[in-house]
Amino acid sequence: xxxxxxxxxxxxxxxMNQDNASGEFSGLLRHIGxxxxxxxxxxxxxxxxxxxxxxxxxxxxxDAVQKLDIYANELxxxxxxxxxxxxxxxxxxxxxxxxxxxxxxxxxxYLVVIDPLDGSSNIDVNISVGTIFGIYKRLTSESELLxxxxxxxxxIELVAAGYVxxxxxxxxxxxxxxxxxxxxxxxxxxxxxxxxxxxKIPPSGNHYSxxxxxxxxxxTRIQDYLNKCADENMMLRYIGSMVADVHRTLCLxxxxxxPKTKKNPEGKLRMLYECNPMSFVVEQAGGICIDEHxxxxxxxPVQTLHQRSSIIIGxxxxxxxxxxxxx
Length: 327
Ligand code: AHG
What we know:
Blueprint (H helix, E strand, L loop, with lengths): L6 H10 L7 H21 L9 E5 L5 E3 H16 L5 E4 L6 E2 L10 E9 L10 E9 L10 H4 L8 E7 L3 E6 L4 E7 L4 E6 L10 E3 L10 H12 L3 E2 L5 H11 L2 E4 L10 E2 H14 L3 E3 L17 E2 L1 E4 L1 H11 L1
Helix pairs in contact: 1-2, 2-3
The structure holds 2,5-anhydro-1,6-di-O-phosphono-D-glucitol.
């Protein structure tokens, strides 16, 4: 007897329980799952193909672009377009958003924000990377073309969000606002199978995760908090790939921080492609996500496609314990 539940089965079953579900949202999620399988295949054999290393360009956020960034970006966009269920996409790798149709009436109501390959500088040394995605409902009506304002929505408007972790095993973790579920890729059958039902972040943890190398660039409030973590003999873990660092934090509890630095005075991570989707997942698992002023990430206004923010994300007790330092 096979009790496995595949991602497709889970999505279809979950949507059957929703009133007025048209199938559009399920179809879109399933296409993200299919694209993730293809990216996974390429990431797994990157060393055997001529696709590791730098592309020679920088993206709109000013980061060096890896060849695999380009590949993953094009692939994700192609699958989202072919899904026939997506109005358009904004990607960390693109200056502007893409609209999939210039016809009126517009038939699709969902749009996707995506970081196709987060942490891609880790690829060349065979360390975990990820894909992050968020799904919003468009604000404009079907009688209007997609506009920039459709994408500039705060995290609280997310309909679904998740990530794919290409690690020792590949996992897709997502929420559509009813808890968080994780699916591990079974290469034998080519399917993501439910392995982590209703994930909950432990209320506290003994790990803190931050690029400690920037210590001298951090605000003194952050430095004081980090000194407290060291005084309490907490374990420092940092991969440099947000998906992997946040996934560990979600599983084991603790705190992940990417504060402002002299190099990135607004913070490094992007609101649309990284901070909001990961915050939605962690909040749905029972965690807290704030910026370094103590404001809830998901309520922050989004003014530009590539807006950055500081972020502090993790277990309730750990994030609460930094609040007195932020005042
Ligand atoms: P990118 O998507 O450009 O590879 O950025 C990776 C991000 C994120 O995944 C990670 O947490 C952070 O950058 C690491 O930055 P540092 O190298 O500055 O620590």
